[in-house]
Amino acid sequence: MRWTATQIPDLTGRIAVVTGANAGLGHETARLLADHGAEVVLACRDEAKAEAAAARLAAHGALTSTVALDLASLASVRAAAEILRGRYPRIDLLINNAGVGMSPAGPTADGFEIHLGTNHLGHYALTGLLLEPLLAAPGSRIVTVSSLGHKRGHLHWDDLQLERKHSLPEAYFQSKLANLLFTYELNRRLAGTATIAVAAHPGNAHTEFMRHMRPWQRAIASPRLRALNGWLLQPAEVGALAAVRAGTDPDLRGGEYVGPPGRLGFTGHPEVVRSSDRSYDEDDQRRLWTVSERLTGVRYRVPTAA
C-alpha cells in the first residue's frame, strides 16, 4: 500500500522546525506538517521569503513562525538556535532539509567548501545546539534529507574542503553521503533516549535545485514534458512525503532511510530503503563526527542511560 498524506497522524500540539521551508521540498514538507496540526517553524536564509511562505500557510489556518537561518554561517546557526531554544522548551521534530546543490558559490562564511559547510556542517551544528529541546520532547525525531547522489559520494579525508581539486558534482555527492554518515552515527549516540534520527531522500523532484543544471538538462526536466519525463521526475509534494514519513510514521525505527523505492529510486511514494554500503561504514561515521565537532566547535551532550 502506498504511503500518502492521508497516513500522516494528527500532529496537534507538536512543534516542527523545517530548514529551507520557504520553497520547494521544504515548503511542501512544512505544508504537509501544518495541514495535520503541527506548529511549523520555517528556518530560512531569506527572511522576506520565509515570511511570505509562512503567510501562505497561515492563510489556510496553519500555525507558523519563522527564524533567520543561514547554514553557511556558524554565527547565524548559533543565533537561530538561541532564538529557538528561548522560544520553545521542547521541539518534537527537526527536519534538516535545506541545502545547496551544484552551487558555484565560494566558501562559507567560516571558510568551508560550500556544499559540505551548508549541507552537512551547518545541520550538524544546528542539531547539536537544539539537542536539549529535542531531548525534552518524548518521541522526538531528527530527520536529515540526503539524496540519491550520495551513492556517488566519497569522503575525501585528505582534502575534505576539496581545495586541491574542486568539482561541483563531487562536492555535492560528498555532502550528501555525509548527511547519512551523520544520521547513522547520531542515532547510535541517541541510544537510551526517547529521540531517534532518521534519513530520507526525495527521489528526483521538480524544485529550484534545477536552476544549477545545464540548459539542456533543465529542458528535459521541464514540467511541460510530464508525459515524457514522468518516470524520471515527480512533483515536489510527492518528493516531500519521504521526509514527512521519516518524521511522523510511528512504525519507523531510528537509523532507517526512507525514500522512493526501486533500483533507480527516481520516483514513487516513500518506503524504507537501503543506502549505499559506504554510508554504513561505522569507522567513517565516527571519523566524520570527530571532524565535524572540531570544525564547528559544537559538542553534543547526550545523557547516558541510567
Task: Describe the 3D structure.
It is a single chain. This protein has one domain: Rossmann fold, CATH 3.40.50. Helix content is 39%, strand content 12%. It contains 11 helices and 8 strands. The protein has helices spanning 24-35, 47-58, 74-87, 114-129, 131-135, 168-189, 215-220, 226-229, 236-239, 241-248, 282-296, and strands at 15-19, 39-44, 63-68, 93-96, 141-145, 196-200, 257-259, 271-273. Helix 2 links the parallel strand 2 and strand 3. Helix 4 (114-129) packs parallel to helix 6 (168-189) and helix 6 (168-189) packs across helix 11.
Outline of the structure:
With 306 residues, the protein is an alpha/beta fold.
Secondary-structure-based class equals: alpha/beta
Please state the overall shape, judged from the principal axes of the Cα atoms. Answer: globular
Q: How many DSSP helices?
A: 11
Q: Biggest β-sheet, characterized?
A: 8 strands, mixed
- Return Rg in Å: 18 Å
Mean pLDDT: 92
* Contiguous runs where pLDDT drops below 50 for at least 5 residues: 216-222, 225-231
SSE order: EHEHEHEHHEHEHHHHEEH
CATH class descriptor name: Alpha Beta
Helix content, binned percent? 25-40%
How many domains comprise the coordinates? Answer: 1
Walk me through the topology:
Layout: E1 15-19, H1 24-35, E2 39-44, H2 47-58, E3 63-68, H3 74-87, E4 93-96, H4 114-129, H5 131-135, E5 141-145, H6 168-189, E6 196-200, H7 215-220, H8 226-229, H9 236-239, H10 241-248, E7 257-259, E8 271-273, H11 282-296
Parallel strand pairs: 1-2, 1-4, 2-3, 4-5, 5-6, 6-7
Antiparallel strand pairs: 7-8
Helix pairs in contact: 3-4, 4-6, 4-11, 6-11
